[in-house]
Design brief:
The chain is mostly beta strands. It has strands at 17-19, 30-36, 53-60, 62-67, 70-75, 79-82, 88-92, 97-104. A hairpin with a 2-residue loop joins strand 4 (62-67) and strand 5.
Length: 105
């Protein structure tokens, strides 16, 4: 099949995170949608072993992101690319927010 379609609201969620790689049968990259409650915090992590760079797009809301110890303020529409070996962590603000995160080798 040349395409796969899913609605992220219909996928399983873990801590507000909808991982779409498997439901979409992606081979080379991942897509995650995060519906973050106020104060939500993602895990600090890096992807050096997988050689994945990631792009974080804040679709709606307000948040901050720490990359290699540098804190970045995010508002709706902001996107941040993070290199594979860089540590990163997202912290949601005082409102509900929606992120789209993509990652690929």
């Amino acid at each position: 099949m040349s395409h796969t379609k899913v609605n992220y609201d219909e996928t399983e969620t873990t801590y507000g995170m909808h991982f779409l790689r498997d439901p979409l049968d992606c081979e080379d990259h991942g897509v995650t949608v995060v519906d973050a409650d106020p104060g939500w915090e993602g895990p600090e992590h890096e992807h050096d072993d997988e050689d994945h760079e990631e792009v974080y797009l804040l679709v709606d809301g307000e948040a901050s992101m720490t990359v290699e110890g540098e804190e970045l303020s995010l508002e709706s529409g902001d996107a941040v690319r993070v290199a594979p070996g860089a540590t990163r962590q997202v912290t949601n603000g005082d409102t509900e927010s929606t992120f789209v995160i993509t990652g690929a080798p």
